């Protein structure tokens, strides 16, 4: 590949053409490429490649890891396995309506957009008026359970990049420290993906969330919310995790079971989850 542009022999490619050349180097979503590999693939000088790469990292199209450059959250969401939000909603809504009917609680469906959650659906309950969430609306991912559930499965360095601008407090319970947030995300992974939110986004509201995951990573997140002073949401946690897993199977029916989150609830797994819930210092 040369530096010649279609605009004329020997003419340097435009910035858009250069950026396109670099993005095309990442033909595999899981690729990790070093600077010298990208320069060799594109035919661009190392200095030019490095300058454009850093711009793409800053804009979220790429991320810089210890193994090289990789596709960032923006590129992964744009070219993900699930092509549109309608497909996610079609798979999720019947199961979310079932979850709402069984619990009477507010149920959310959302996706991760950089450091925010964007809500794709909301099914109301008695606590619905107290929640500012709305379809198409946003919430800071670090302050809501379905946001934390999705963040827990991102590479740590990607989560760090998302929080470069800091984490603003919504209430006195909001986690605003990056070290504390990583501790929280580790706890979520230890609970098989269950994330809890207690008065962190709205005072008086607690939620339990879980991520919808596919073979290539997080696709969406769901949450179940109610008033903090009513019955504890821990009792509904297995239902939330089960619904998230069932949505994953609907979205990726052809995927090998080995590549998907487990949906089998053995007695041992249930005992472990309930034990972790009982022993969690944040509960």
UniProtKB/TrEMBL annotation:
GO terms for biological process: negative regulation of DNA-templated transcription. It comes from the Bacteria. SUPFAM superfamilies: GAF domain-like, Winged helix' DNA-binding domain. The keyword Transcription applies. Keywords: DNA-binding, Transcription, Transcription regulation. Residues 13-73 form the HTH iclR-type domain. GO terms for molecular function: DNA binding; DNA-binding transcription factor activity. Transmembrane segments: none annotated. Residues 74-253 form the IclR-ED domain. SMART domains: HTH_ICLR. InterPro entries: GAF-like_dom_sf, HTH_MetabolicPath_Reg, Tscrpt_reg_IclR_C, Tscrpt_reg_IclR_N, WH-like_DNA-bd_sf, WH_DNA-bd_sf. This is IclR family transcriptional regulator. It comes from Actinoallomurus bryophytorum.
């Amino acid at each position: 590949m040369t530096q010649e542009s279609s605009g004329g022999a020997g003419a340097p490619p435009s910035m858009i053409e250069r950026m396109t050349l670099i993005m095309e180097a990442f033909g595999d979503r899981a690729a990790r490429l070093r600077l010298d590999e990208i320069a060799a693939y594109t035919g661009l000088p190392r200095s030019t490649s490095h300058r454009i790469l850093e711009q793409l990292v800053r804009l979220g199209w790429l991320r810089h890891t210890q193994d090289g450059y990789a596709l960032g959250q923006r590129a992964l969401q744009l070219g993900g396995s699930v092509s549109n939000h309608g497909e996610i909603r079609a798979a999720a809504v019947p199961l979310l309506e079932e979850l709402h009917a069984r619990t009477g609680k507010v149920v959310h469906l959302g996706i991760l957009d950089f450091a925010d959650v964007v809500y794709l659906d909301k099914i109301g309950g008695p606590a619905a008026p107290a929640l500012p969430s709305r379809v198409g609306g946003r919430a800071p991912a670090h302050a809501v359970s379905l946001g934390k559930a999705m963040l827990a499965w991102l590479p740590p360095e990607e989560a760090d990049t998302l929080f470069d601008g800091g984490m603003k407090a919504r209430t006195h319970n909001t986690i605003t420290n990056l070290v504390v947030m990583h501790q929280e995300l580790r706890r979520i992974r230890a609970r098989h993906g269950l994330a809890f939110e207690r008065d962190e986004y709205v005072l008086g509201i607690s939620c339990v969330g879980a991520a919808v995951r596919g073979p290539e990573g997080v696709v969406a997140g769901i949450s179940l919310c109610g008033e903090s002073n009513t019955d504890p949401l821990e009792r509904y946690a297995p239902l939330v995790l089960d619904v998230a897993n069932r949505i994953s199977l609907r979205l990726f029916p052809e995927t090998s079971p080995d590549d998907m989150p487990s949906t089998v609830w053995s007695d041992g797994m249930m005992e472990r989850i309930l034990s972790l819930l009982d022993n969690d210092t944040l509960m």
